[in-house]
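Q: Please design a sequence for this.
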């Protein structure tokens, strides 16, 4: 919806309240009770990505963290706090890392040029490129190469999750599952990249064990 003014947003808000109350007079009473979502969704900030819409979820179903190109740097206090809160306080059973084809952050990271303040952030994606340079450079079509980096970035960010203490603890107690997905905006379809958390966890925890 393209709003012409901020005022229109508030008018829309009033209509939304009326519609919700018409469906269920206790809607907001229920909504304001404690949240118990089962999913933490870590996605891209891209305005076309709506985790609720993609997952057909309702308010209260998904705890969300978004940043440019769904990166999980293990030194980023923001994402660490979200992951900690989701596992330790909410008790989510699933963490989803969801990238998307046609991602501007990934495209910019694939361009050899100065991206200003974005350089250190895109460096995390360029690290993923470096790790998989052989596979990526063997792909002739620039679009297909981009698509594959979107997927590899998701899988590497899933591995980054496994480096985090709270995640290691929950995985070893078999209380948590990690999923890597890529969303295709051209079709609306979610592609499950089948991140093998248990196998990867065994390999990665050997090296990154922080328990
Ligand atoms: Co994006």
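A: Design:
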């Amino acid at each position: 919806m393209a709003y012409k003014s901020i005022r229109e947003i508030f008018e829309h808000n009033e209509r939304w309240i009326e519609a919700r109350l018409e469906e269920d007079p206790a809607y907001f009473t229920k909504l304001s009770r404690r949240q118990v979502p089962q999913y933490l969704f870590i996605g891209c900030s891209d305005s076309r990505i709506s985790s609720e819409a993609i997952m057909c979820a309702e308010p209260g179903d998904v705890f969300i963290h978004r940043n440019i190109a769904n990166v999980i740097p293990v030194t980023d206090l923001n994402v660490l706090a979200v992951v900690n809160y989701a596992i330790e306080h909410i008790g989510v059973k699933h963490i989803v890392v969801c990238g998307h084809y046609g991602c501007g952050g990934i495209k910019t990271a694939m361009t050899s040029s100065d991206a200003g303040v974005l350089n250190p952030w895109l460096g995390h994606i360029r690290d993923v490129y470096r790790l998989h340079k052989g596979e990526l450079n063997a792909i002739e079509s620039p679009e297909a190469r981009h698509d594959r980096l979107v997927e590899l970035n998701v899988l590497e960010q899933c591995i980054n999750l496994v480096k985090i203490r709270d995640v290691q603890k929950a995985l070893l107690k078999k209380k948590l599952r990690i999923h890597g997905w890529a969303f295709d905006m051209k079709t609306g379809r979610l592609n499950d990249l089948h991140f093998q958390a248990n196998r990867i966890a065994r390999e990665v925890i050997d090296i990154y064990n922080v328990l």
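Q: Thanks. Anything notable?
A: The mean pLDDT is 93. Residues 44, 46, 69, 100, 103-105 surround cobalt (II) ion (CB under 6 Å).
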